[in-house]
Amino acid sequence: MGTFPFGRPILPCRASATDARELFLLGAYPSALHVRWQPPPGAGRLVRALAVDNEPEPFWTGVDQADHLSRWKLDVDWSDAWGKVTPAAELNGPSGTWVEQRVLSPLALNRDSAWITDCLDTYRSSVGMLAAVGSVYTPFAASRDLPAADLVPHPSEQQIVTESVGGHLGRLRRELVAARPSIIVTLGNAALRVLRALLDSPDGPTKLSPGSEYGTSHLVRIAGRPLRWLPLAHPAAPKPYQVAHSSWLALVSAGGRP
C-alpha cells in the first residue's frame, strides 16, 4: 500500500470503535502522523510537516502526538545523524479537533458516542507533501541508504467515490451493522456520495450545498433500518461551507436544527 518517509508501511486505518455507537461519522480518507524535520546541515531544507506514519485513528486530535513521535522513532530506529524531528502540531489533529468541537459537541455527543471512519482507509498525500518528499527526503534517503518513500497522491472527489464504491462498500456496510447508529454524519461531498451508494433507496441530497438548507437531516434506510442522515461540510471545506457551518452552529445553539 506504500511506504512513508523513513520506512513505515502505509496500512489501513481502523475505525475508532468496534461496538454499537449512537453516531456514525464518515469522512473521506485518513491523515497521518506528521513531524517537523530539520535535516543535518547541508542535507536539505526544513520540512515543517512531513507525513511519517499512519494516523492513530480517524480524525485524531493529536493530543498525544509526543508519545506517538517517541514510538515512531523507536519503530524506524531513528538516528540523530538524520537530523532533528519534533511534533508538527499544526498538522496533527486540527480536523479531529474541528469534528469534536463543531460536530459532536453541538449534537450533545462526544468521541465515545461515535463510530468514526473514512470512505478510503489509507493515507493519501497532498501535492505539497509530494513536493517536499521529492525535493528533500528522496535525495536524502538515497544518500543515506534509507527506504524510498512511496506515497499515493491526493485523489479527486470522483476518485474517492469510484474507489470507495468499487472496493470499500462491503467494509462500510459491516461497520454500519456493527455500529447500529441512530444518526449518520457525512463530512463533505465525497462521503455524501458514498453514503448514497449504501442507502436502500436514493433518498436525500445528491450534493452538499452551503445554502439555506445546510444542516438539514434526512430520514433514510440502510439494510432496512431507519436512520437520520445529517450531511455536513468537511473540516477542510472552502469558506462558503465554513460560513454555512457556522450559521448551522448558531442555529443549533438557539435550539434549531437538527
Account of the 3D structure:
This protein is an alpha/beta fold and 258 residues long. It has helices at 65-75, 94-104, 127-144, 157-167, 169-179, 189-196, 239-253, and strands at 23-27, 32-38, 47-54, 84-87, 114-118, 183-187, 218-222, 225-232. A hairpin with a 2-residue loop joins strand 7 (218-222) and strand 8 (225-232). The mean pLDDT is 96. The chain is elongated. It has 7 helices and 8 strands, in the order E-E-E-H-E-H-E-H-H-H-E-H-E-E-H.
Summarize the structure.
The chain is an alpha/beta fold and 258 residues long. It has seven helices and eight strands. The protein has helices at 65-75, 94-104, 127-144, 157-167, 169-179, 189-196, 239-253; strands at residues 23-27, 32-38, 47-54, 84-87, 114-118, 183-187, 218-222, 225-232.
Strand-helix topology:
Layout: E1 23-27, E2 32-38, E3 47-54, H1 65-75, E4 84-87, H2 94-104, E5 114-118, H3 127-144, H4 157-167, H5 169-179, E6 183-187, H6 189-196, E7 218-222, E8 225-232, H7 239-253
Parallel strand pairs: 1-5, 1-6, 6-8
Antiparallel strand pairs: 2-3, 2-4, 7-8
Helix pairs in contact: 4-6
Number of helices: 7
Counting copies of identical and different chains, the oligomeric state is: single chain
Distance between the termini: 39 Å
Biggest beta-sheet profile? 5 strands, mixed
Strand share of the residues? 15-25%
Strand-and-helix sequence, N→C? EEEHEHEHHHEHEEH
> Could you tell me the mean pLDDT?
96
Which residues form runs of ≥5 with pLDDT under 50?
none
C-alpha-based Rg, rounded: 20 Å
Number of strands: 8
